Amino acid sequence: MKHLIAPYRLYVLLFLLLLITAEICWSWKKDKHAYEIQETFSNLAVLAGFQFSKYVFAGYQLAVLGFFARYSLFTLPQNAWVFLLTFFGADFIYYWFHRFSHSWKPLWAFHLIHHSAMHMNLTAAYRLNWFSAIISPLFFIPLALLGMPPGFIVVSYALNLVYQFFLHTEAVGKLGTLEKIIDTPSSHRAHHGSNAIYIDKNFGGVLIIWDRLFHTYQPETEPVVYGLTTGFLSNNPFKLVMQGFMDWFTPVKSPKDPVTSTVNSAVLPAKG
């Protein structure tokens, strides 16, 4: 099977590189300044480490879900309908996983890196922590207990992340009626904003209906300022990966420190 899958991975990579090149050309032609050279190379370095981590933790993820699948309440067949159910179930869980990652310091330690980018572009999409695979499968255990195949769960989560790649751009404006149903580049730009109005908003992966249902939706209404609330962090990929953990174990100096949501602003996204 691997020799059949490998070529498709290459095609996908080439397609993504083509899109990034097109976005760079768009940014240059429109004078949007969506890319900064050092940050872009930092994003690509983080991506390389993340891709390597997927191979390291792939067996662990399946093992965790497979273990709990043994104790599932139901046994669901592996067909298209069950996959669709799994996909929407995974998207619902992703919403809460993402939301908790903004409000609980141990989870923010993993997620901080994603909000540290000062520019919104496609290369920032996979600015993801190399160790996130350690905790992500734990949130999807309920799906395994409900009888959804572990393979379906992993693929659904992977597709969720792939979809989000296309959300990290300023090249796409608002999409009309779709803004009410699915996560869009506009909604996700707001999520990454450091403006006060955008903090802790738009946590959806594929669907934005969860945000509307649980009152965390905020449309893009003012120019977005990207990054952490503390401003620029670093272009060193190792510092970016580890900073959240260092902040986690750093005592808060004063109870009077400003806070946003339930996480100290020193470790919260720059409003998004």
TrEMBL record:
Spans through the membrane: 46-68, 80-97, 130-159
Keywords: Lipid metabolism, Membrane, Oxidoreductase, Transmembrane, Transmembrane helix
Membrane topology summary: Multi-pass membrane protein
Domain annotation Fatty acid hydroxylase: ranges: 83-216
Domain of life the protein comes from: Bacteria
Main location: membrane
InterPro entries: Fatty_acid_hydroxylase, Sterol_desaturase/TMEM195
Gene Ontology MF annotations: glyceryl-ether monooxygenase activity; iron ion binding
Biological-process GO terms, alphabetical: lipid biosynthetic process; membrane lipid metabolic process
Matching Pfam families: FA_hydroxylase (PF04116)
The keyword Membrane is assigned to this record: yes
Location(s) in or outside the cell: Endomembrane system
Gene Ontology CC annotations of this record: endomembrane system; membrane
Database matches in PANTHER family: ALKYLGLYCEROL MONOOXYGENASE (PTHR21624:SF1), STEROL DESATURASE-RELATED PROTEIN (PTHR21624)
Name of the protein this chain belongs to: Fatty acid hydroxylase superfamily protein
